[in-house]
Amino acid sequence: MRCATVKGASAVTLLEIQGLSVTIPSALGPVQAVRSIDLCIARGEIHGLIGESGCGKTMTGMALLGLTPAYAQVAARVIEFDGVDISNSAADLRGRRIALISQDPAAALNPVLTIGRQMDDVLRTHSSNSKAHRAATAVALLAATGLADAPQLMKRYPHQLSGGMQQRVVIAQALATGADFLIADEPTTALDVTVGAQVLALLRKLVVDRGLTVLMITHDMDVVAAVCDRATVLYAGLSVETGPASAILTHPRHPYAAALLAALPDAAPRGQRLAAIGGQIPPSTETISGCAFSPRCPAVMALCHTMSPPARGAGNHRWLCHLAQCAP
Ligand SMILES: Nc1ncnc2c1ncn2[C@@H]1O[C@H](COP(=O)(O)OP(=O)(O)OP(=O)(O)O)[C@@H](O)[C@H]1O
Ligand code: SF4
Ligand SMILES: [Mg+2]
């Protein structure tokens, strides 16, 4: 399987998803947390997954980790990791090939165990190396995340570390599992801007140095601009545009992506979070007919209310819309 890349050439696909849906029973009817998401992520890229709150970003990551609620129904036409169908085995890859970096490092770490003990717990699970070998590996991994004086740090507790240091420890733990695909769910949300930028730079460095691949879940255009090679825009549980991050930021093709950018205070994506645009995403219990964005779309046409939009574009930039040229 091959994926289009930013350069237009093809690269080896690490993750291929077509038509992913996650449905959760509720008293109000089935919650369609994810309606239909396609993702194609090439090995070695940072792929942004961006959209408003509630559009299904985290649930998509949970489906890949096999961490959706037990009562949720997960389905997909295709869900392959490294060429292997993982529709029934996503959880087997968790902590082996796929690891999660969440937005709250303090919650991810155990407050009553030292950093060294927590690193060792991960390493012990994933190797049969001696204690001394594991300790050396832990120090090396902590140092690889840019943490100074790693041997001393091993003796400290999470509360003795800043948020940025805690997030680096969480990243070191992810590396300790041996995973080569990281799902980073809003990894800088709890950090101030400067520290967040440092963590993003670290992830970029690790991608280059260690050949990792990252799914970067975010609602922050600055994150997409700063580190993402490609991005997929989600709306109401649907992937509505996918392409090179630079193209989406400068020439979005789907009216929703265009509206997100236009709604920013100075219409400049860099440094800005997604601003609200008029209207609301449809409730996830609602059945959508036609285009999900039609109630809010400035370019809406009569057929948009009744007919699902076709796939447009080619190669590495695709979108769903009835208009051939959605955005200027
Ligand atoms: N355990 C659950 N039970 C029922 N509905 C859920 C559950 N988890 C998520 N949802 C619903 O699924 C939809 C997608 O949620 P998800 O957490 O994936 O959104 P998100 O894009 O990550 O949003 P945010 O930016 O706020 O983190 C939302 O409508 C949410 O309310
Ligand atoms: S299909 Fe119609 S409503 Fe949907 S984004 Fe395109 S123009 Fe707007
Ligand atoms: Mg989320």
Describe this structure in words.
Helix content is 30%, strand content 24%. An 8-stranded mixed beta sheet has the order 8-9-10-4-11-12-14-13, with helices on both faces. Strands 1, 2, 3, 5, 6 and 7 form a 6-stranded antiparallel beta sheet that branches. The chain is elongated, with a radius of gyration of 20 Å. The longest helix is centred in the middle third of the chain and has 18 residues. Adenosine-5'-triphosphate binds next to strand 3 and helix 1.
The first-level CATH class name:
Alpha Beta
Helix proportion range: 25-40%
Secondary-structure arrangement, i.e. CATH architecture: 3-Layer(aba) Sandwich
Provide mean pLDDT, rounded. Answer: 91
